[in-house]
Amino acid sequence: MADQQCTCGCGGPSRDAFVQIGTRPERKPAAVTATHPMAHVEVPSGAFLMGDHSGDRNLADGETPVHEVRLDAFSIDATAVTNEAFAAFVDATGYRTEAELFGFSAVFHLAVTAPDQDILGAPPQTPWWRGVRGADWRHPGGEGSSIDGLHDHPVVHVSWNDAMAYCEWAGRRLPTEAEWEYAARGGIPGAKYPWGDAEIDQGEWRANIFQGSFPRENTLEDGYLTTAPVRTFAPNGYGLWQPIGNVWEWCSDWFDPRYYTTSPTQNPTGPESGSTRVLRGGSYLCHISYCNRYRNSARSQNTPDSSMGNAGFRTVSLASEQREPRG
């Protein structure tokens, strides 16, 4: 089982990369409600070949071998969960995210909006990240930022544990990694991207990634330094908006780079245990010169309590499948 932390610099450092300044107190349980405010789309049952077909794989991530997977039909959010939807959850339950409880989260250096005394340092292997005191879902850049005017942007600075708490409240679950990839492909077998194999900037920008010289200068050719509204660009063949780019999305599975060699064919749910959870889709920090993980098959990972300014989630209905993540 893999025990290394996230190796993708655009995916964000794990929480233990910074000096921890807070502890996680006991929480009251989140109440379950029948209302989930996000629009969803139906993904039909079927089989697909999971894994990298393009040759652009990252070997350490375990994107191969390509293997057949068969899935039952499921209903998935058309977009990542928004700030507006997450605010409804917080208002209903009083929930505090792990970024709030620990007192800090990871912010890309060009997006920091905080005084120098709030900067807790930068991980040596990914020095473009900063640990920022006071950065959380309401303050994505730190103390001087807010989500005013960003109601339709994806919520960020949410850990896997936070996403699971939202799912409990909403009567939903996180997608399995196989469900996520099947839905992201939009019915196009073997394609590199949700729209096919055309490159991301061919003709027009098709997703929100980093342009310019990473990590020093973003030329903003697609219009965004950080997150874009969840219904930006165009949906794929199943009606999913931005499954790649914009924000990484948590999946229910534990991460193991060797899992594809033993994965069951029918409705795989990932390894029995692990230390990190799967993230999919890439983010606004992916750049071809450094991180090409804005592809259907690309994988990343982080610890369940880690949060960063470029990771969110979308959910799946419980009605079609009652598979719960292990652990």
Provide a short characterization of the protein structure:
11% of the residues lie in helices and 17% in strands. The chain is of the alpha+beta class and 327 residues long.
Task: Please give a structural write-up.
- A four-stranded mixed beta sheet has the order 13-12-11-14, covered by helices on one side. Strands 5-7-6 form a three-stranded antiparallel beta sheet.
- The longest helix is centred in the N-terminal third of the chain and has 11 residues, at 83-93.
- The protein has 327 residues and is an alpha+beta fold.
- The radius of gyration is 18 Å and the shape is globular.
- The protein is 11% helix and 17% strand.
- The relative contact order is 0.24.
Features:
327 residues; alpha+beta; 4 helices; 15 strands; disordered N terminus; disordered C terminus
Overall residue-averaged pLDDT value:
91
Principal-axes geometry comes out as globular
Numbering strands along the chain, what is their spatial order in the largest sheet? 13-12-11-14
Tally of strands = 15
Distance separating the two termini: 14 Å
Multimerization status? single chain
Helix and strand element order: EEEEHHEEEHEHEEEEEEE
In which range does the helix fraction lie? 10-25%
Structural class: alpha+beta
List the total number of helices.
4
What portion of the residues fall into strands of 2 or more residues?
A: 15-25%
